[in-house]
Amino acid sequence: MGLLHWKGLYGISYHQILLISVVYGKLEHHLHREAGKSLLTFEEMTTLLTQIEACLNSRPLTVLSDDSNDPSFLSPGHFFIGSPLVPFPEPDLSDMPMKQLSTWQQVHRATQYIWNRWSKDYLKSLQQRSKLTSYMMNIKPVVVVLIKKDNLHPLAWRLAVITEIFPGKDGSVRVANVKTSDGILKRSIHILVIISIE
User: Fold this and answer.
1) What is the pTM of this model?
2) Does 129 or 151 have the greater pLDDT score?
């Protein structure tokens, strides 16, 4: 039996329940691993859950703009506040020992830990969908993608637009040039995740 019990999933089709379980099931696992070993007050637990909620609501749903100079995506946060969720700047606390951290810093460290693990699992689940796997091999330019990257701060998703593709001998695309805010980079398609398929 899990740590959390989900209610109110009536009237949803089976495949939608599976997608919800992918998104929230991994989160529940990471929350239990990180916060389950510490005693948090009501206020600290509320802060942690609110920050995790912001992480979940920052995930990309679909593309808003495929402009190569400024790609953007629609997230659940857009429905709540009308714009993307923006995090407060926080120092990276993942390398510091727990004994040296204040309680407030421990809550932020837990958020960073859960974000790092959950975002990797979420991107991996997007890549493993059967429709995306066959589509990735024949990807075309001017598609907005997410780049898998370690150590991004919470609520940050690395967006890029494919500008050029490099097919292998079998005709399947293996490498692509992507335009990011840092310039044009050459990346393997295995670290690129398509946000949505037309």
Assistant:
1) 0.74
2) 151
Contacts of 195 (CB under 8 A, 6+ apart): 60, 61, 62, 63, 73, 144, 145, 146
**Residue 106 phi, psi (nearest 5):** -65, -40
Specify whether the CB–CB gap between 192 and 145 falls below 8 A: yes
Under 8 Å between Cβ of 99 and 122: no
Residue 26 has pLDDT above 70, yes or no: no
Q: E-strand spans in the chain?
A: 62-65, 72-74, 144-147, 159-167, 173-180, 183-188, 192-194
Residue 137 pLDDT > 70, yes or no?
Answer: no
- Please report, for residues 18, 26, 71, 171, 197, the alpha-carbon distance to residue 166 in angstroms, rounded to integers and kept in the order given: 34, 34, 22, 9, 20
Where residue 125 falls (left for φ over 0; alpha for ψ -120 to 50; beta otherwise) is alpha
In a 3-state reduction of DSSP, which class is residue 143? coil
Query: 71, 55, 85: which is closest to 163 by C-alpha?
Result: 71
For 93-116, letters b (16+ CB in 10 Å) and e give: beeeeeeeeeeeebbbbbbbbbbb
Query: Which of 66, 105, 112, 113 shows the shortest CA–CA distance to 87?
Result: 112
The letter for the amino acid at 127 is: Q
Residue 136 CB partners (closer than 8 Å, separation 6+): 127, 173, 189, 192, 194
End-to-end Cα spacing for the chain: 38
